Amino acid sequence: MAPTPHQAKVNKAKIMAGGKKQPNARVARYLKSQESQMHEGPKNALLMKGIKCSGGMSVVLKDLRSILAPSAKLLSKNNDIVPFDDASSIEFLSTKNDCCLFGMASHNKKRPNNLVIGRTFDHQILDMAELGLIHYKSLFDYRGMPKKRLGSKPMMLFLGDKWHLDDEWKKLQNLLVDFFRGEPVEKISLSGVDHMMSFSVSSNSDVCHMRTYYVKLKKHPNGGSTPLPHLTPSGPDMDFKVRRTEFASPDLWKAAIIQPTALKGKKKKKNQTTNLFGETMGRLHLDHQDLDKVQGKRSKALRVAGKLEAQKERDAINAELEQEKSTADMEFQRTYGFAEHE
Fold first, then answer.
1. ∠ CA 219-225-228, rounded to 5°
2. In the beta sheet, which residues pair with residue 127?
3. Which of 5, 2, 259, 31 has the alpha carbon at shortest distance from 123?
């Protein structure tokens, strides 16, 4: 049996304080397995019954185990747990069974057909929502219809303005996506898309309608490589109201979404690339330069050539002035009969 969270904290504190070593290797291995991992595995869901659970709510838990399999575990016994009053028992059971998602079904006169879903972070409750089921249609009601494959990931569709305008419904959407999305993957094959879950809520109602469809891809009648999906109701379907919620505080939420620095990768440097040979190539952005005003070092030959060119221009100007002057003197003498300077 794994140590309780209190025992784990005590043992870990002794190690950090440089005190007594672990009594055995089993506890040391368990503590190491509970440390933060660079790449986390799929999130497991723990499904359990409350103090009283009707037959209909037991069917709900069995259907949830079917659609979440193989990352789901169902406890058969009733549990004396009231999540919104004391969540320590849920934290203990989730730690013991290595599950960070949980769902608990109960039924009583005050809250009939009650379903509480939530998740944990660092062995403590992160957030949870209490849903009151109004209508439910199980997998058995869709017997004979095609069902999703084991371990396949759903397409999730959220219809309604509340999902992106109301903060409470935004957080509920995040919780539902985390609860039903399955194992995180980088790529997915088109043939692996076999079911879709839609959650629709109108702006003037608090009832959310959850529907599950089997997706079959068929050849498009107009041709092309993109197939045409055909939806077939496959269950489970439910209509529920949100009764109570308990979402994470800002500090706890900030700590829960922190990613390791190694996963973020190196920050990309602007205007710098690496070519095929591993050489770093840079790009510089300069203002427009006026080449006529740029002064650079000139060689001796260029300086002599510049002087000769300037002297030639001066000689040409002087010759042109002399010619204009002689022409003016000749016109003056022709007009008045004597030279201008006589």
1. 40
2. 119
3. 5
Tokens of 99: 């599950």
Q: Where are the alpha helices (DSSP H) in 100-242?
A: 162-165, 167-180
Look at the pTM and tell me if it is higher than 0.85. Answer: no
Strand 101-106 vs strand 45-49: parallel, antiparallel, or unpaired?
parallel
CA 224 vs CA 207, 219, 228, 230: distances in Å: 40, 8, 10, 16
Token pair in block for residue 180: 């039903």
Q: What is the mean pLDDT of each run of 10 residues along the chain (342 residues)?
A: 69 59 71 73 90 93 93 92 90 90 94 94 91 94 89 91 92 94 84 90 92 90 82 93 93 87 73 86 81 69 78 89 85 73 60
User: How many C-alpha atoms does 307 have within 13 Å on its Cβ side?
Assistant: 6
Question: Could you give the C-alpha distances from 145 to 198, 236, 293, in angstroms and in order?
Answer: 18, 12, 82
Q: Which residue has the tokens 């379903």?
A: 115
